[in-house]
Design brief:
By secondary structure, the chain is of the alpha/beta class. Helices cover 29% and strands 17% of the residues.
Amino acid sequence: MIQEIGGKSFRKKSKKNLKFIDLFAGIGGIRLGMEAAGGKCVFSSEWDPHAKKTYKHMFGEEPHGDINAIDHDEIPKFDVLTAGFPCQPFSSIGKREGFSHETQGTLFHEILKILDHHKPSAFILENVKGLTHHKSGDKDTLEIIHDKLVEHGYCPQIKLLDASKFGVPQYRERIFIVGFRKDEHFRASWRFKWPVESEVTATLGNDIIQSGVDGYSISQHLQNSYIYKKNDGRPRVLIPGDCSDITLNTLVSTYHKIQRLTGTFVQDGPTGLRLLSVQECLDIMGFPRGFDIPVSRTQAYRQLGNSVAVPVVREVAQSVAAALAVK
């Protein structure tokens, strides 16, 4: 099977696939990257009903709901745990609730419990760049996460990766945490190599931003009263056919709110200015052509802004698979 991601085609490996579980799955961005690297998803979990609808529409299966309510015995045997987990203040929650465990009561704690129960060979965790300066009480949250993963039997490695260095035309820095079990898989942690970022920053080119797109127009009234109320060069306006050197800022989940100072719009449509289309956002995130989001436009923007850049996950997953392949 061939998937097209980020303008390229990738053939799935014919050898035995690594089985993985897709936690905090969103619309399946991590799953797409894992599958493009040869993985096979055996379980997924997501609580948001709109994201679950998109996930089921594209993968033919509805994710399990709240991770806190999942019986760990219901999760099939797997090799790699993947999760784009939410960031929470760990130490303060533990102190407030009277727990000695710094992560007790958080969603990350549920990940630790699943690791303890199933003892998979490896994990891939993803989070926002802000995790690097997030504190829980008097400790860095990232330090707590690292230390707890070590305590639970894994050798974690942490890296900040920018999607624009992996063929994705937006600056999108995300924390990735990869770890291998200390026992028979400890050598894999030595073999693991982070994917190398390109020296070239990806740009939009002249294929992603289209002209003559209907249904995304920004009213003339809103343009006059808000968008262009100041002559300060804001917001950023893309011109179809003239985007070859442009790399976008991070696509955010609140894009639909038409933010004048930080928004990026297109010179196109009946009113002369429009939002990026959902398809353009899918391309900007590195999703394969044919991926379809069957929910409202507002929910689509939220889902894409909260998702991962698929090609980055693919590269990380390939490196994990390569490290585990050698016995």
